[in-house]
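User: I'm putting together a small comparison set for a docking exercise, and I want a reference complex before I start. The sequence is below, and the ligand is 2-deoxy-2-amino glucitol-6-phosphate. Could you produce the 3D structure with the ligand included, as structure tokens?
Assistant: Of course. I'll restate your input first, then give the structure tokens for the complex.
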Amino acid sequence: MCGIVAAVGTDNVLPILMEGLKRLEYRGYDSAGVALVQAPGRLGRAREVGKVAALEQALVAAPLTGMTGIAHTRWATHGKPSQDNAHPHMSGRVAVVHNGIIENHLALRAELMADGFVFTSETDTEVMAHLVERELQRSDSLLQAVERAVARLEGAYALGVIDAEAPDRVIGARQGSPLVVGVGDHGCYLGSDPLALLSVTDRFIYLEDGDLVVVNQGGCTVHGLAPDGTRQEVVREVMRFEHDDLAVGKGEFAHYMLKEIHEQPVAVANALEGRLGADRVLIEALGPQARELLADTRQVHIVACGTSYHAGLVARYWIEELAGVPCQVEIASEYRYRQVVAPPGTLFLALSQSGETADTLAALRHARRRQGDDAYIGSLAVCNVPGSSLVRESDLSLMTHAGPEIGVASTKAFTTQLTALMLVTLALRQVRGGDPELTARLVHRLRYLPTLLGDAVALDEEIRGIADGLASHRHALFLGRGSQMPIAMEGALKLKEISYIHAEAYAAGELKHGPLALIDETMPVVALAPMDDVREKLNSNLQEVRARGGELLVFADPESGVVAGEGVTVVNVPACCHYLAPIVYTVPLQLLAYYVAVARDTDVDQPRNLAKSVTVE
Ligand code: AGP
């Protein structure tokens, strides 16, 4: 979604703001803008439609300087991408950047217009600028004006506010959208994501809902909201963000997505690090209450969105087969709005790369509200971002340790999620006394998984060679069976989101119940053929496609019996056990989508209309 950076420093902060915007571009990027206090009483602002590079160019032509400033990358929600709609929004001496949605903005707009304020954008955010400007006329300080203004807002927001007459500070506010304070040696900062600020600090305060913060050169003061609605100064822990800053760059790769695909062997090794004993999963490494929570679990409800949802679908096969625990998987935006029956002993498992996806968070909060009534026994977050809202609000969290994922299309976050979910599955199995021999075999294979993923990544050249053939098509079908069915869904999602080719996934056995009508020589069919119990049946499904002229591209185990021939291209995937095959078969599908997108010359890392972290409903 949108991104916020703000800084109060001892020198011109424009370079810090621009670097932050570049690092945030992956979140949302139809326009970008910056505002600085250029001198007491004087604000300067620049806004451009398009990428941060366009803003950068505009600032070369008309430079801005200042020691206090706010900046924003926008992903349009209210009003089209345009210069007028880009943030920061200004009202007199005030400038504001905002992430989230102000739900009562129409009523506020009418009220402010009646008061004589003139609106220049279609955004919900502009009401905040005018509200603060109005409140300043009857407040003692900028903090008080912002406090009074946010009291009028309904919805979700992370805000950064500056005042030309208070040039030494930025006020931040958080309610439902992430916001962190970066504590540096030469200034203090605000960011919607710590990644934005890693060039200046690795020390962060994760603000809580209701917090207001005054940021100035020397540090910050947080004002928390007590349950009775009163405000008081609070101390929030400063946490160190463990990172390798190099991991944030593209390195030798053309795109972040390709780099992140290639990082998967290391990322998965990190996800396993310290969590495997000789022949079992170290349940204690999953958290102090993990053993008790998993032992009491009678069924699992997995809730997630997009790629994370696909990881959950794979986990259902594992959890039911290997742990014997009933498992239900649901898209968060559906789960939260229906009357879910959660029988006693339900473990709520929230899956999210970012830990800030609005629908997943709302589903977690919905489940937590019902935790007391005996149905949900607890919540477990499987997440990649330490300190994220999902992690902080769950009883237990299992970090996936994928490292920063910048490409909008999720790759290493997905394979590390699957790895973490296999750990959860085996832990559930262990506490239920499942046959230890199979557990030990799977633990042994998990140790070998990074090597297998290295072999899968080595298919890069071969897949690049066949991608052109797919790039000219307008549609594609993906087929899988069993736990490969969600991988087919993930392959189709990857292809459509970065190459804009329409792609659908079907359980191969379902083909003859309708989609077979689509098959002719213009419909490429991508199929997954690992060594599993249904490979003969899958082979029959593939014959049905061939018989109707469909071109097949099959990712197959070398022993699967699928033979290349006219209209059938076979890519051999490293041999692996069928439990871990979903993780391994993901990699060639990511590479396929990547090279097809490159052949079609799309914006691979920042595909149109999409944003990395969907923090609005
Ligand atoms: C897929 O490539 C996307 N990045 C998207 O589907 C993503 O998985 C979804 O928005 C959920 O995000 P989360 O894992 O951060 O919750």
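The CA atoms of residues 113 and 119 lie 8 Å apart. The domain at 460-599 is CATH 3.40.50.10490 (Rossmann fold).
User: Thanks, that's exactly what I needed.
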